[in-house]
Design a protein that fits this description.
Structural class: alpha/beta
Shape: elongated
Distance between the termini: 55 Å
Strand content: 5-15%
Largest sheet: 6 strands, mixed
Strand order of the largest sheet: 9-8-10-14-16-17
Number of strands: 17
Length: 945
């Protein structure tokens, strides 16, 4: 067990009434409520939300515009499209419309009211207490209610929540027996507005929403439209906080439209005292933030800039700071850290509202940590320590402490572990007093993670269990899935380290199921901003795969006897291997959903024997301590074999091979690196492949293997490349492969491309020759070159049902981000997300058989860039896609493409993988292009037949 903290914080922890991090689990648990372990349950049914926002939005229409609610898909109507705000990452804050009672209608002296606002809060409290007593004696119930609401709001500002709720109760009670009147309705509306604020700041957004709904009704009865719209904007803020981003966006767009229409009316007799502009600025601030989360950065910036201009025209410093803060957040979302730092510093320099300043300082610290600006970060940390000593308890304060702990641990996990633990413990205690279960769960879970990192497993288990159980007791069932996924995964990791693998596997399975449920909510916003695929989704699937493979490997075959005893594994081992294989397929599908931010990428699974009995499918998983490979053969049980090495060493070996495929690298070094990877992937099953007379190897790769030209693997025994013995294809997931092939001898191709330099991209002179030679080989072809190669021309030509081949020789890029994956046309770019509109014909009875992208390349430094190729394949609807991993000289590209079509023609359109293999061998056997840099980057994705 590691002991990483000293005793310097012990006194501080005890003074705060908290246990130090090295305390035992029994001591820690005394601070928090106990729960019955029987309450741990795998999931809840999903119901339509109870709120409606007066019918402004239909939740079923908002989850995924690209795939509307489908029969049998109960999660589509959840209406969320996101997960609630996560305090561990960027703090976004909130903006509320608050209706503070004025002293004017109570004593009629505006001079006293202006002076009152400038007094310290304690003196304002005394003034309102005197007014409440005077009005009570006079029997002025509406006035007394307003005074009590003012006291409640001041108590909220001080963080005195018990007093705030008592005053709020009394404010509403004062009106209970009053006859109906506009004055009474106004006092009731203001009281409800203040009560909703109290619920919201204590971390109870659902109660706040219900209360603001009632306030909206009361404002309508009082004929106060400003209150109506302000209450509606507050309700939408609760949607944002709870993760209902698409619904919040549509509601805000609707509200802004109606406010703009009101502003355009010439006669507003009933609305003379109704200031539209501040409400419009608030709505724009909220909409800009929602658009950030929904991965619409350009639109977000435009909306926020418009709101900022309006706030500055109004001279409203608070709204100006809110807009500047959100613009700075947008810069940080897009990793423009210089601009983010400047933005946060501008907010702080304007002396904003204390809450905005608090959030801006926390986000600025995170930026400084990321930029490794130690001195500036230390200065911000000292400021935050001072602020936190005087901050009243609220969800914002506890979330700020959690956020601070994460910045500290990223900065220096050893030096600041104690301070991080202190902040987390205080966040848990504050959340407990506020009855904010989400805040408690976050704090406990993060505190447990510190114990996990310190290898104090018993404490880590107990705290994680408490965090998980808290998450299961949330008021609304939809609210707990994100936290349950986090803490079940964490608990699974801990139990794994404690040697309780069966329990760990069960937790990992439940977590994967939760993530499958959450897919509909996770994909509609920017995957890099919340619930990151790389950090919080992929590791869960791979963790389950690792545990299943460990179970399967117990008593399993070693490398030495795989070739002779591959069918002798017990049923329990085969069950584990098949589940691991299924999990890898599910992961690849989830990855594509994440890429497109859609959820409709579903298809029926296809068994390999239904595709090709002479094909072998390799599922790979680069895990933390090994490279695992599952080999699937027609009619056989899957075969598991592994190379036990740390992930870093494996990645170094794979990267070294990729970098060696360069004519500048010595041949001896290149062959050695390629041979090493061959020994990992192929040699353990070399004889199995030969015994089964395998002709095609299909890889479902992950990690760095995805960008590797697998045909260049080198067998040091035979002295041959892998492509010399086998045809090779890639598949993102066999679930996405649709069986089919080119009709016998019927080639009708649409050829297009750019040979001239354009839009900053270099010329590709050989494109004209390539297209001309292919057109000569395939006489029933049409081609679009240079100025004729436009988006509109492609759309028009692709509507021709006769085309079964589309060949595009143009610049383009494949990336792991859909917005950075494109093809170049004469007048612009075709983004991968639009490819289905461009190439898919609504009248086409069958999909395109073959899509060829002959001059594109993968994005540099992106180990998931081949997702872009898979994206093109999927979006185009093509059965097979031929593309390149990197840009190849145009002459060898043209030669290979012409040879590929000649092979297809000779084989009557059958077996595209074998045709590509023969074309690659033609280059390999030539005098000019035998180096793998020329022939190995060409890959076939999808159906290989």
């Amino acid at each position: 067990m590691k002991q990483v903290w000293g005793g310097v914080l012990l006194t501080t922890f005890l003074m705060l009434g908290l246990s130090p991090l090295w305390a035992g689990p029994a001591e820690i648990s005394q601070l928090f409520p106990r729960f019955n372990e029987s309450e741990l349950r795998p999931g809840f049914p999903v119901n339509r939300p109870s709120w409606d926002l007066e019918g402004i939005v239909n939740p079923a229409d908002l989850v995924m515009p690209a795939c509307r609610a489908q029969e049998g898909n109960q999660f589509v109507i959840s209406g969320r499209g996101g997960v609630p705000s996560d305090p561990r990452s960027l703090l976004r804050g909130e903006i509320l419309w608050v209706d503070r009672p004025s002293g004017n209608p109570i004593d009629g002296r505006s001079e006293d009211w202006v002076a009152l606002e400038r007094l310290p809060i304690s003196e304002q409290v005394q003034w309102w207490q005197r007014q409440e007593q005077r009005l009570g004696r006079q029997g002025d119930r509406p006035g007394q209610s307003l005074a009590l609401t003012a006291l409640s709001l001041l108590d909220q500002d001080l963080g005195q929540w018990s007093d705030a709720m008592t005053a709020s109760d009394a404010s509403l009670a004062a009106l209970s027996d009053s006859p109906e009147s506009r004055e009474v309705a106004q006092a009731q509306a203001i009281a409800l507005n203040g009560r909703g604020r109290a619920y919201f700041l204590q971390g109870q957004p659902h109660r706040a929403r219900e209360t603001w709904q009632a306030a909206q009704t009361a404002y309508d009865q009082a004929q106060l439209p400003e209150g109506r719209w302000g209450s509606l904007l507050n309700q939408i803020q609760t949607l944002q906080t709870s993760g209902y981003y698409p619904q919040a966006r549509e509601a805000l767009i609707s509200v802004l439209g109606e406010l703009e229409e009101l502003g355009e009316l010439e006669e507003l007799e009933a609305l003379e005292a109704f200031p539209l502009s501040p409400l419009m600025v608030q709505a724009q601030a909220q909409l800009g933030e929602v658009l950030q989360l929904l991965a619409e950065p350009q639109q977000s910036q435009e909306v926020l800039q418009r709101g900022l201009s309006m706030a500055q025209e109004l001279g409203d410093d608070d709204l100006t700071a809110q807009l500047q803060f959100r613009l700075a957040n947008g810069h940080r979302d897009q990793q423009r850290l210089d601009a983010a730092r400047t933005g946060y510093e501008a907010v702080l320099g304007a002396n904003p509202d204390p809450d905005v300043a608090f959030l801006a300082r926390l986000n600025l610290l995170a930026v400084l940590v990321d930029r490794k600006e130690t001195a500036a970060a230390q200065a911000q940390l000292e400021e935050l320590k001072v602020l936190l000593r005087s901050r009243p308890p609220s969800r914002q304060t506890s979330y700020g402490r959690i956020n601070l702990s994460q910045s500290l641990l990223r900065w220096d996990a050893i030096a600041y572990q104690g301070l991080a633990a202190q902040q987390l413990s205080q966040a848990v205690e504050e959340s407990r007093r506020l009855q904010d279960r989400r805040g408690q769960s976050y704090g406990l879970g993060q505190l447990a993670q510190l114990y996990e990192q310190a290898e104090q497993w018993d404490a880590a288990e107990q705290l994680t269990q408490q965090a998980l159980t808290l998450a299961q007791t949330f008021e609304e069932r939809l609210d707990n899935r994100d936290l349950r996924a986090l803490w079940q995964w964490q608990l699974g990791r801990i139990l794994d380290r404690l040697g309780r693998q069966t329990e760990a596997i069960a937790l990992y399975r439940d977590t994967v199921s939760l993530l499958d449920e959450l897919r509909l909510d996770l994909v509609s916003f920017d995957p890099e901003l919340q619930f990151s695929y790389r950090q919080q989704i992929e590791p869960v699937y791979l963790g389950l795969v690792r545990l299943l493979l460990e179970r399967a490997a117990t008593g399993g075959s070693s490398h030495s006897d795989l070739n002779s005893q591959h069918n002798s594994q017990p049923n329990s081992q085969q069950t584990a291997i098949r589940e691991a294989q299924s999990t890898l397929i599910s992961l690849r599908l989830t990855e594509l959903n994440n890429f497109f931010r859609e959820t409709c990428l579903e298809a029926d699974a296809i068994d390999v024997e239904d595709l090709d009995e002479s094909a072998a499918v390799f599922y790979t998983a680069v895990l933390s301590d090994r490279l695992a490979v599952i080999l699937s053969l027609a009619g056989e049980d899957p075969i598991l074999y592994e190379t036990r090495k740390p992930r870093t060493e494996l990645e170094e070996g794979l990267t070294a091979m990729l970098e060696s495929i360069n004519p500048a690298v010595a041949e001896e070094d290149r062959l050695e690196r390629s041979a090493q990877v061959y020994d990992w992937l192929i040699r353990p099953v070399q004889e199995v492949l030969r015994q089964h007379q395998i002709k095609t190897l299909v890889f479902v790769p992950d990690g760095p293997l995805r960008n590797l030209p697998l045909g260049a693997l080198y067998d040091r025994t035979s002295g041959e490349y892998l492509i010399e013995e086998y045809a090779i294809a890639l598949s993102q997931s066999l679930q996405l492969v649709e069986a089919g092939s080119l009709a016998d001898g019927e080639f009708k191709a649409l050829l297009g491309g750019l040979s001239e330099a354009h839009q900053g991209f270099s010329a590709i002179p050989a494109v004209e020759l390539e297209v001309a030679q292919i057109a000569e080989l395939l006489p029933e072809s049409e081609f679009l070159l240079n100025q004729a190669f436009t988006r509109d021309a492609l759309v028009a030509q692709s509507r021709n049902d006769a085309f079964n081949v589309i060949h595009l020789a143009t610049h383009g890029q494949f990336s792991s981000r859909a917005d950075e994956t494109f093809l170049l046309t004469w007048e612009g770019r075709i983004n991968v997300e639009d490819l289905d509109v461009v190439l898919r014909s609504p009248t086409r009875p069958n999909p395109i058989d073959l899509l060829v992208l002959s001059a594109c390349q993968t994005a540099r430094g992106d180990d998931r860039a081949t997702l872009g190729i898979a994206g093109f394949a999927l979006r185009s609807g093509a059965r097979s896609t031929l593309a390149t991993l990197w840009s190849v000289q145009d002459e060898p590209t043209a030669e290979l493409m012409v040879e590929f079509y000649q092979q297809l023609w000779a084989n009557s359109g059958q077996n595209k993988a074998e045709s590509l293999r023969q074309a690659q061998l033609a280059l390999l056997q030539s005098s000019n292009y035998q180096h793998p840099a020329y022939w190995s980057p060409f890959i076939l994705l999808g159906n290989w037949r």
